[in-house]
Structure formats: structure tokens, C-alpha cells
Amino acid sequence: MSHPSPDLLLSFAIGRADLPHRVMLEAHLAGCAPCRAAVAEATASGGDLLRGLPAAPLPAALWERLRQRIGEEEPRGGSQAPGVQAPALAGLPLPAAALAELPPEVLRRPSLRWRWGLARGARMAVLAHDPVAHSILLIGHMPARRSFPRHLHLGPEDVAVLTGGYEDEMGHYEAGEYAAYEPGTSHEPITETGAPCWSLTRLEKPNWFFGWRGLLVRLLS
User: Fold this and answer.
1) Which fold has domain 109-220?
2) Which residue, 46, 42, 44, 45, is CA-closest to 10?
């Protein structure tokens, strides 16, 4: 099984992962016991360190500010917060923990803006973006036995497979697995026979497509 790197899991555990990574890692952790154990171990180490520090009283004003911030915080996650709905994401194969990482404005959308996925029957939509890391999160759907056009990664790309699976020059990835591609990687994924492939993708830069599809993308962008 393909997993996120230890460094990425540690970044997630200490709260430094960006929004797309958090959503994707929660989707992966929902079905991966070894990665859940790795995150729990990293979190436990931080807790042990804090418990080992000398006890010191905190200013009363700090507790008041915390209570105020908690009261102002909007609940996240359509399946975990009563009364919160996510109409645009209804029916999508997103685990509850992944939904809970999405900001309220995403959950309130009436619909997603689906785009042509550059292959017959394929589609994709932008779920969210992180303005600090300049990364975006895409959700994509590919029918079985479809070839996604060959493309070059101008920046890093991570993929979390939600259902179905695909194969490429780098390996074979099924539901629950996580793939990471370095800048400069070129590949042509082909989905498996059977269930359609749903996936989450994190991008920092647009991909470069070859042939007429690439020309079309560049003309429309």
C-alpha cells in the first residue's frame, strides 16, 4: 500500500499541513491503520513533552480570549455538526473527517462547478485552496478504463484515491492509497476496470498537457 511520507504525517500531526493536505490525509487515515498509528504516536510525543514542563499559571485574560474565540468559531463538517449541511458534496465519497476539514464557505455552496476532465466521461472540480501555500484541492471522477492525458508536473502533486484505482508508470494505486509526484514527473494514468475512480488531488502549479489537449487548456486558461 502507498502511504504519505513520514514528514507529511508529522506535519499533519503538529498542525502545520495546509488545507488540501489536511483534507487528503483525513481521507487516507480513514482507511489506513498504520498511518493513524504514526499520527497518534507523533501526537502523543508532543503531549508527553507538554506534560513534562513545569506547571505555571496562565493569565486570566488568555482564558477569556480563548472562550471568546471558541464562541465565535463556526462549526465545520456537515456530518459532525448538527444543522450544518453540505449540499454540493452530497453523494461524493468523502469520509466525514475529510469533510470536517473543509471551511464553512465550501460546505455552504449549493453546487460544485464541474469541469471537463480532459477524458471521455471525466470531470473535476475545485474544492478549496490555501492562499498561504498557494495550493488547490481538486476532486476528480474518472470512469473505469479511461486514460488521463499524458502531462508533466510543473510542481509537486499529491493524489488520494477515494474509490476505484488507477495505474501509471510509477505504480498501481487503489482506493485508500496515497501517491506523491515530484516536479518534473510525466505520466499517463489509466483507471482500473470496475468501479469509477474518485480521487483528491493537491496542486501547487498547473500541469502541462501535451498535444491538442494542452493547446486547448492553454487557450482556455
Assistant:
1) Jelly Rolls (2.60.120)
2) 42
For the chain, domain boundaries:
109-220
Q: Tens digit of pLDDT for each residue in 87-98?
A: 999 999 999 999
**Is the whole-model pTM more than 0.90?**
no
